[in-house]
C-alpha cells in the first residue's frame, strides 16, 4: 500500500521538482504553473506526515540531479507537464473520487475544467496522470468468499515470485481462459503452468534466430549494458553470439557443460552453482572473487582485450526482485533477498573493472578511489537504463 500512496507520489514530486530546478539552472522556460508539490491521499496520509514528506522533496530532487547516470535533461525535454499520481480502487464509483486535493490545486479556476473533461480527454489536464490501480479491498477478517467460489485473501498477491512457479503476465494473458476456468483445481493450475513453461523453453531452444545483434542493440531475451560489451539475459542459445558466458546458477545446459570440459571451453564458460534462497545469497557473495579472477585470467591468456569481447552474464531469473546486488559488497549493512544473480554479478564486474570513460580494464590490481553506497547506486541505475526488467531497488535507489 505504501508503494501506491507514498513511494509513487514521492517519485512524481521528486521528478517534477528536479525538472523544474534543472530548467531554472539552464534558464529554460516551462509552462506555468509547474506543480512540484507532493500529492498524497488525505484519507491515507495525515496532513502532518504529508508536510514532513514534502519538506524532503527538494533534497531528494538534488540527489537525483547529482546522479551521474541519470539524464535529467532528457527527462526535462520529454515532460511537457508535471507528473501526478491518481488512484483507482474497487470502491471507486466516479473517476473524480480518486483525485483528493491536498493542496487546493483543483480549486484554482485554471483546473475547473478537469472535472468535466478528464474522462473525455486527459490531454486537457495540467499534469500527466500516473494511475495507481489497487485491485484489492479491505475486509474485516482478511479473507472472504466470493459468489464464484474463489476466496479473496488480503495481501495474497505479495511476493508473487515465491508462488507463481515462473508464470509471466504474458503467458497468463495468452491462456487466460484456461486459468480462469472455475472448474480447475490447484493441481490443474500447477500442471498448466508447468506445461506452458516447458513449451516456452522448447520454443526458445528451437528458435535460435531470435538472438543476436550488435552491441548497442537489444533483443527481447538479453540486453547490452551500454558499450561495455557485457549483456544480461536468460535464454540458453544466445551464448552462441558471445565470446564469454558466465552462468549464474541457471540450469547446466548440455552444450555448455560439455564445452567446459575442454581447455578452450574453460576460457569461454564459467558456471556458478548459486542456488535459490538464503544459501544462494551467500553463494552469490562467495562467487564474486571467482568471477573477477576468471575474467582477469582470460585477459592474461589472450593477446586481444577482453573488454572488446562480448560477455553474457546469464541466469534463469529475469527480474531484479530486490537489492541483492548491494549484498555483494555491503552484506554487513543491508539485509538482502534478491534473486537476479546476473545483475549482482554484472554489478560486481563493473565496480571492479569499469573505468571513468566506461571502458573495462580487467586488472585486479587496479584500485578504485572508493566504493560507496552512492557509487553503487549510480551503477545500478546505469544497469537499469539498459536492462529494463531490473526493478525495485527499494532502499538502494529510492530517494
UniProtKB/TrEMBL annotation:
Alphabetized Gene3D superfamilies for the sequence: Protein tyrosine phosphatase superfamily
Gene Ontology cellular-component annotations: cytoplasm
Gene Ontology MF: a single term: tRNA adenosine(64)-2'-O-ribosylphosphate transferase activity
Domain Rit1 DUSP-like: 268-389
BP term (GO), one: charged-tRNA amino acid modification
Pfam families xrefs: Init_tRNA_PT, Rit1_C
All residue ranges annotated as the Rit1 N-terminal domain in the record: 2-197
Listed InterPro entries: Prot-tyrosine_phosphatase-like (IPR029021), Rit1 (IPR007306), Rit1_DUSP-like (IPR033421), Rit1_N (IPR033449)
Name recorded for this polypeptide: Uncharacterized protein
Species per Swiss-Prot/TrEMBL record: Physocladia obscura
Taxonomic classification: Eukaryota, Fungi, Fungi incertae sedis, Chytridiomycota, Chytridiomycota incertae sedis
